[in-house]
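Each letter names a residue; the fold follows as tokens. Both lines appear below:
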Amino acid sequence: MTPAERALAASIRQTFSSAYEALTSVENVSHHRGDPNDPDFQEEYDDACEGLAHSVEKLFRDIKLLAERLGAPATAVDITRVTPSHDEASDFTISNEGDFTSKHIRAAYNFFQSLDALTDGKDVTGLTILETILDSTPKIVTAFKLEPKNEKGVQDAMAQALRFAFPDVVREFPISKNLKVYKPDFGVRSLHAAVEYKFIDSAIEAKKSLDDTYTDMKGYGGTFEWRHFYAVYYMTDTFFTQRDVTAEYKLVNAGRNWTPLVVVGKGAREKKLVSAPLRRPIKRRPTST
């Protein structure tokens, strides 16, 4: 891969970040708008939409150029076919949860994801190594002679293991949204990969862990700095299998950039001791003689 193609791919990644920032600006202006007829509001809103349109147009233009340089003419044709006009480029939709999304950014991401693997073989190899380490979580926990009682117990062991392969591991780094800050358990900056662990010690926790992951999917998305996500379900018993959770992800249309990993290892949550209620001593009446 030539340096020019790598530089173009890096520029596209930056444009994705700019596009998401522009979409956030549109969302912020919309949430804090006053009178729609106010010329100041209209100007601010138009500027935000113009910034979004500019970023989206640049995404499609540069991704098409990258496809042509990488010898993928069919992909370039497909990109041309779905490239939005300037007026369409600022279109957005609002989900039932109130999140602003752009189908054009999503389409551009899908095109770029397939081309990005061709521009950096190290990224694919690094992700493979990361997945192997995450799959080996039970062995690593055993090697450290641990019997974890919660997620932190697993996380502490994995933090040490991951740093053997990836010196740029970070823990609980922030992903900021409009009203809330989300913090994945781990991140590997060089791979743009984030990891979330779920410690599961009961059937009830097993079901809850999936609901928590769906919340994570919404919170962690929307940033191109982190674009590969792993949910590791560390179970103390086989409450569900890899096949079960893979099927569940398909059923809820989970993002393709989310990979579930089911592992079974040692550990158990500490049982809370329930003290018996104090009882007053029974006073016996004296017996009459």
Summary: Residues 39-69 form the longest helix (31 residues).
